[in-house]
Design a protein that fits this description.
Helices cover 53% and strands 20% of the residues. By secondary structure, it is α+β, with helices and mostly antiparallel strands. The chain folds into four domains: 1-18 and 68-208, Tetrahydropterin Synthase, Chain A, CATH 3.30.479.30; 21-61; 211-252; 255-335, no CATH class. Helix 1 (24-44) runs antiparallel to helix 2 and helix 4 crosses helix 6.
């Protein structure tokens, strides 16, 4: 039985851990104090002033900090949480205050997947999804969980595995919206204590075994063929009902029946080179006059078509002349 493989997460999030972040104020403080120390060394002819200036510059450079508009800095004083700073410029006391993390409060996208995960009807599938989430409480994200980015990633992956395990393949393929909402609620329930809210979950792809894909394709084709045959049968029933109604109309109206027979004969004879086999009873009912009238109409139609094709002869293209069958040959006497 295949197991579940949770692939590494891909999160487009900058490093959230604290550390030294140089900025223009820190660089200015270090450069200014170092320059003063060097100038004092040149004036006093003693290197002590230069060393003191450089050390003072390093200490002063660690004090000014700049947080971007979307960032919050988690400040600790002797290891104890004292508050959040930012956005903008703020100062800390080197050696007393430390910044444990920079929290990004923009919407973050995290891609995750589950490979060879069994559905409720024991079908192994590979599912790729994208998670959209935001840190709404930087204090909880910094204090309640060790690494909130990794925690959100693993919560999303394990939640996806749980949802797939209790969902059938048909529901997974046809009810994506319902599965995505259920997965979003599950992940959000796990991440809310960490100060993280989930906006949405989008399933990008669901891959099933090739053999199962072929079987599903043949099943769908068979279902469509069945539906086509049903529709054709229903059409035949409707046509039969209409013919039945038409026969009732012709039953007490011989003239209408004869006109219909002449129309059928005309439609068949107006085709070039066409020949039509009709029952002798139909010829008897129409009579020679009806036969000749239908044949004359067909010949007239063919002559009009020939005149329409006459320009082709002027271009040097060969013309094909098809003879209309002799109307007498269509007459089949009874007996």
């Amino acid at each position: 039985m295949p197991g579940t493989d949770l692939t590494p997460v891909n999160t487009n999030l900058p490093a959230s851990s604290g550390g030294s972040r140089m900025n223009v104020l820190a660089a200015g403080a270090f450069t200014g104090l170092s320059a003063i120390g060097v100038a004092a060394t040149m004036a006093l002819h003693s290197p002590v002033a230069a060393v003191a200036g450089i050390l003072a510059g390093l200490i002063a450079a660690a004090s000014p900090k700049i947080a971007r508009q979307w960032e919050r800095a988690v400040v600790l004083k002797f290891g104890k949480y004292v508050g959040l700073q930012g956005p903008g410029v703020f100062f800390v006391v080197p050696g007393v205050h430390t910044i444990s993390a920079w929290i990004d409060q923009r919407t973050i996208t995290t891609s995750f997947s589950a490979e060879q995960t069994l559905t409720a009807d024991t079908v192994p599938v590979n599912v790729d999804a994208v998670l959209f989430w935001t840190v709404y409480d930087p204090e909880k994200a910094a204090l309640e969980v060790q690494d909130y980015t990794a925690a959100v990633s693993w919560a999303a992956q394990t939640g996806l595995r749980d949802i797939i395990g209790r969902t059938s393949l048909t529901e997974l393929l046809r009810g994506r919206v319902h599965v995505e909402k259920e997965l979003q609620a599950l992940i959000d329930q796990r991440t809310t204590p960490w100060g993280v809210t989930v906006h949405s979950v989008e399933m990008r792809d669901v891959v099933i075994p090739a053999a199962l894909q072929d079987a599903m394709s043949r099943e769908a084709q068979a279902a469509r063929e069945k539906q086509a045959r049903i529709i054709l049968g229903q059409a035949e029933v409707e046509i039969a009902k209409l013919f039945q109604e038409a026969s009732l109309s012709y039953q007490d109206n011989p003239a209408a029946l004869q006109l219909r027979q002449m129309n059928i004969l005309y439609e068949g004879l107006k085709q070039k080179g066409g020949m039509m086999v009709i029952p002798s009873s139909m010829v008897d009912s129409m009579g020679p006059a009806g036969m000749m009238a239908a044949t004359a109409l067909a010949q007239q139609h063919q002559q009009q078509a020939a005149r329409a094709e006459a320009p082709a002869a002027t271009t040097g293209e060969p013309q094909v002349v098809r003879a209309l069958p002799d109307p007498a040959s269509l007459y089949t006497p009874i007996g």
